Amino acid sequence: MLVGSADIPLNHPVIRVGSAEIPDDVLALQGRALVAGARHLHIAARAQVGLVRVRLWNGASPVEGTVIFDGSLRLDGGVVCAGDVLGISSFKYGFDVPGNQRMLVSVDDPGSASRVDVVIDPGMQEVSLTACRNHALPLFRVVDSSSLDSTDELGLILSAHNIPLRRLAAAVKLVSLVAGKDDAARRSVMMEFRVRMIGEWLRWISPILTEGETSSLSSFILERLQGEAPVDVDSFAIEISSEVLRRAAGGNS
After folding, report:
1. I need a labelling partner for 158 at 20 to 30 A (CA). Which of 113, 171, 193, 241 fits?
2. Going by DSSP bridges, is the β-strand pair 115-120/52-58 parallel, antiparallel, or unpaired?
3. Within 10 A of 86 (CB to CB), how many other CB atoms are there?
4. pLDDT for 206-241, tens place per residue?
C-alpha cells in the first residue's frame, strides 16, 4: 500500500534512501544510476529543473519503471528515510522492525530519475485491478493476491492521480460490485466510507475543490450507486465518472 509520498527539490542530483542516520561518507555515483551501501542507497536523479517524486510503498506497488535495486538494507532504528543528500528536504516512515529490511526500488529514468518508487517487503505476484473495459489500469505487485480485500484494492486504484477517468471509473465500478457482498447491516456504511475515499482522491487531483464541492460530488456518486442496479456496470461507471470529472473541472458552473 502507499504509505508516503513527497515531491523533493534537488540542488545535488542524488536521492538518498535508507536509514535515518547520516552516513559516514557519501559514495560517489560516478555515472551509475545507483550505488548501494549496507544502510543507504544513493540514486541518480534530476536536479534544479523540477521536483523529484518519491513514493514509499509497503507490500504492494505498481509495476512501473525500471527496477534498479532488489535487496536488503540495515535499518537499525526501524525507520526508512528518503530525501536529498544535503539534508534539506526528506521524509521518514517508521515500521518498528529494526534490522535488515528487503526493499525494491524502481525509477522512471535510470541515471536521471524524476520518479522513485521504494517498496518495503515487496511482493512479486502481479495482479490486475478492477477496471472498466478498454480502460485498463497498471499492474500491481502484491505479496498475496488472496489477502487483497476490496478496500485495499480501492486504495491501490486511487493511489495516483494520472489517468483520472480510468481510475475513477474503476473505483465506481468496484464500489458498485462489492456493495452486494457486504453484510446487509453494514452495506450503507461501507458504501459511504468507500465513496469518501473517492471524494478525498478527487480533492487530490482537483486542488481547487472546496470541502463543500467535494461533498456534493460524493453525494452525486452515492445517489447513483444507491439507485437501481445497472445492466452494464462498465458503461454506468464511465458515465458517472465522466460527469464527476466535468463538474470537478468547473463544468457545472
Report:
1. 113
2. parallel
3. 12
4. 888 999 999 999 999 999 999 888 889 999 999 999
